[in-house]
Amino acid sequence: MAFIELRDLNKSYFTPAGQNEVLRHVNLDIKQGEFIALFGPSGSGKTTFLNMLTGIDSPTGGDVQVGDMTITQTRQRKLTKWRGKNIGIVFQFFQLLPTLTVLENVVAPMDFCNVWEPGERKERAMELLDRFGIADQAYKTPDMLSGGQQQRVAIARALANDPPLVVGDEPTGNLDRMSATNVFNIFRELAEAGRTVAVVTHDRELVQTKGLRLLEIRDGEVGETSLEAATKRRTEELAALRTQAHDN
User: Fold this and answer.
1) What is the domain count for the chain?
2) pLDDT one-digit tens code per residue, 35-57
3) Does 27 map to a domain?
4) Is 86 inside a domain boundary?
5) pTM for the complete prediction?
């Protein structure tokens, strides 16, 4: 049984140049515990796709079901509360609160959603920080940490309320190779533990991670792919662009 169901999902934006169809008739099932990597050309709609999963943005048409919640039929106020408890979001630029300590950043979602008892929240946060090897950084502010450490804090914060779905929008885009690989391994471990993980990435080395399901967005459509097929298409596109530039 699917944990996430997308049915005839469409998303269009109106621009001065006319209607821009970003997603077209997307039908997709994602099982609980799957690790999904979504990639495609810049501007293809990868972030829009994640925004549909999380309810941050609304589709032009179609339905999104996550667990027992039909996102497209839920009012934003209720959706915001549900999202805080059920979805952990990891951003490319970390988006940690600079005036709070690392520990306070991880506790903040628990305070907002009131999931854990007040006396349990600090202990819960410290357990997460220890899990990712940064408990010794708990009382520092984010600017005192490396990029890889900040992203680990961001992942710990995303897991604070123990959400069944974790999404990342280019979560390794600002990290060095070793840090990026470590972060991707954390996501893999989360999926192995039963969480559903969906990330957007451009990194073709990372998408070779074991157990990954690859999806590609192209011309508004989302479909299964392989690294080999996507690489071949990208090579052909770049060759065509070079030929076009030469002819001009």
Assistant:
1) 1
2) 999 988 888 889 999 999 999 99
3) yes
4) yes
5) 0.87
